């Protein structure tokens, strides 16, 4: 054993400590410290020599033994060589004999290793085989898109089998692959739900149609409302869930359609599967949020109406089918979706959807001008509301919408009836209806129940006081009332509400539509006086028919007229017809004056006539004949109207004749011309004296010509002294002759006198008389202005 330097130093230090502490050391130190160093060296040499002698003696004593030992050792050497040779030989023989044993042993060792490996492999495979089988099953399920069982298999693989083979690398790879497989399952199931959502968009319309058909049968409504146009002929796309065409099952569906429901047309498996998958994966909230957002978006798409929806009923059908199908599907998911859809969520979506549905139908129906289409729209909305109500949705906005549509329907009806009334007025001849046979009489009275004992007892031909306009208008108003009531049916209105609604619509028809048409009629250019008179008579009978219309409304609505409630359900036709008749009467007066103007325009007086013709002018005779026949036609008018017309006609004729005399266009006048005017006035006075209209006080019509008569008498008799003497007196014979008018006539006569209409003597006297009268008249005028 070789010691390194550090160990040597340590040993030396140890020896030094021992040596310095021994007695020998003390003696040596004493020697070195004293003077006996030389002695010590001598004695040391002596001691060394003694020891050398001892060693020599000892060697001499053992020399023979050493020699013997050497000799024996040499003998052992030869023997050892022999032994070695023998051992080598034996070893070679042993090795030769052991070779086969070693070969067999090696074979046995190898076999034992193989056997051990096989056993280990069997054990490992026993552990791994369930893992691999489960993993293969997982792959197969994924391939077959059985994602929910695949997820269960994955859970079993992760928590049951993989921990048993955790030491294997492939197990770690599988464990690392599990999150990706889960994500693949999520993505695949989400892909399925996307396909499902896309597919239900195409089948929602069909589901809505089936649901509406069932509701139509339930509420005894017309199932044809839920039948699309050309349903039996159009080629529909196949069901995206079953792949079957609807045409292939058309006959079976027509018989069993009422038994169908949402799950019959839709495979909801992707929804259940995806919900379960996301629930197991702990992402249920994520799936619920995604599903609801997607369905909300689909609801917005379903709520967008076709641009041409207002053109026909089919557009409204398809729109409502799509909306209804959406909510039928959601209701089914609500019932079986394990909380995927909640009632509060559906309530929010329906609240949003109902507002849009109402707005869209309101906007599109406002363009509709076809009453038949609007009735079908109303029935379709009713069926839509009933169907939704069956599924628990609130349909109050739809009922309110129906009331709005009803108002528009009434407006459309009134617009339609404007043309109806115009056609009646256009085709009417404005002559009293005359019937030749009892059958014709019955046909008129069946349409318009007019009762007049004198007419019934009269012989044929019989003449009604009104024209055909009256029964036709009466009949059309009844048709309008029936049409209004037809829309109000099935609106869940009480009898009172229904009655008030019909009466309100009828009042609008009478006071706005019919009133406007009549007002336009009586102001139509070119309408003759006799036609105006007949229109006025017609309005009188239509006013009387107002009571018949009230009875008709009460009969249709099933209400009982209560006289104790005079304000209930009264039609406003009477006041309207009175107003229209008032306008017609004004038009009669205007037309009468215009006709009188036509006759007066024919007047062609020769104001410088030398001698009067001795008879009235022809235009006056024609005017009197016209007035006589006209006032005869006033027989069926109220007496007040006839009297007013007659009085105004006489006043107007007198006014026009006075205006002729005083016209500035007539600069000069002869006395003969004045006498001719006097003859014409006498003819008018004779007409007035005959009282062409009964009921006037005696002389009332003659008073219309009093101003003209007094003026003419004054000039015919030249009774100026009486005029000036009695002027200003209430009992004056010429009380109605104003100085101003007299001055105008005197000046015209004075100008005529200058033309030599009189003899020289008479001309001089006449001139003096006229000058004197003119002077006095001007004085009266000045005095009158001064006062």
TrEMBL record:
GO biological process: Golgi to plasma membrane transport; intracellular protein transport; vesicle tethering involved in exocytosis
UniProt-recorded name of the protein: Exocyst complex component
Keywords from the named record: Coiled coil, Exocytosis, Transport
Domain Exocyst complex component EXOC6/Sec15 N-terminal as annotated: residue spans: 43-212
Taxonomic superkingdom: Eukaryota
Coiled coil residues, start to end: none
InterPro entries per UniProt: EXOC6/Sec15, EXOC6/Sec15_C, EXOC6/Sec15_C_dom1, EXOC6_Sec15_N, EXOC6PINT-1/Sec15/Tip20_C_dom2
Domain Exocyst complex subunit EXOC6/Sec15 C-terminal: 397-748
Signal peptide positions (record): none
Family note: Belongs to the SEC15 family.
GO-annotated cellular components: exocyst; membrane
PANTHER family on file: EXOCYST COMPLEX COMPONENT 6, SEC15
Summary of the function given for this chain in its UniProt record: Component of the exocyst complex involved in the docking of exocytic vesicles with fusion sites on the plasma membrane.
Organism: Scylla paramamosain (Mud crab)
Keyword Nuclease annotated: no
